[in-house]
Amino acid sequence: MWVYLNGEFLDSAEAKISPLDRGFTFGEGVYEVITSYDKNFFLFYEHLDRLKSSLEKTFIPYPKELSNLENILSDLHDKNGFSNQSFYIQITRGVQEFRSHQDNILKAPTVFITSQNLELNPYRINPEKKGLRARLEEDIRWARCDIKTTGLIGNVLSLHDQTKDEVDEILFHKNGIIHEGSKSNVFFVKENIVYTPSLKHNILPGVTRAYVIRLLKKNKITLFEDSIPLDFIYKSDEIWLTSSTKEIQPVESIGDYKIPKKNSDLLIWRRILESFDDS
Ligand code: PDD
User: Fold this and answer.
1) Which CATH superfamily is domain 127-278 in?
2) Do 153 and 128 touch, CB atoms closer than 8 A?
């Protein structure tokens, strides 16, 4: 696999980052995930804007290559060769020779980019496919989930707990209010009205979430961004997850609870997925 590291395209086995990088010693890094379909980067500028915002919020200097990011991704696309790819762009504060908590002098952030084959959303090919299994977990993450940080231990911790059932996604909640998935945003449908947790609930402002909201408006479907209590799960006709790699995917069960089946022609997630335009 080819990767990009600080100005160079390398075989992944050749790519080396110092252990003194603050991404390693302090977990100080941000990232972005961008997908491409036949080399068209989907919602590229929206992702770039969020990356800039993550850098600003963490005071990590803006790396010069971001002004040339589309060309870098395009070259990596050619090198790795898959028709559809997902790109992970990771930026850390850089290498710090002598450890100190504070650092105002580092000016050379580390930029590391990988790309891998992107499986097409299976629900595009077969919308009748069984939905995803999710389970609920208390949201133990930090209070700045609006920043897309590489420090994801709070997101993945419970996935490592072997005593728990295997699921496709975890749904985080706090004080009885639903937040988001460990790697996706969440939407609910009740009586043809769509609800999604508002951004004030310490969630990532998903690029796909914003795109879906635009599509809902275009399709004249009512949407509320709101505080969504846990028991809303048991009153919902549909629950879906959105992310750059998932697009939209339906949830079938949350823990032991199965979402009642609805006539498939009436499912809003299917209408919205059909109107995705990633060409
Ligand atoms: N995850 N919430 C969290 C915590 C996420 O990690 C993601 C994306 C989303 C959806 O954001 P977007 O629509 O901009 O992809 C919401 C990516 C795909 C990942 O970390 O692999």
Assistant:
1) D-amino Acid Aminotransferase, subunit A, domain 2 (3.20.10.10)
2) no
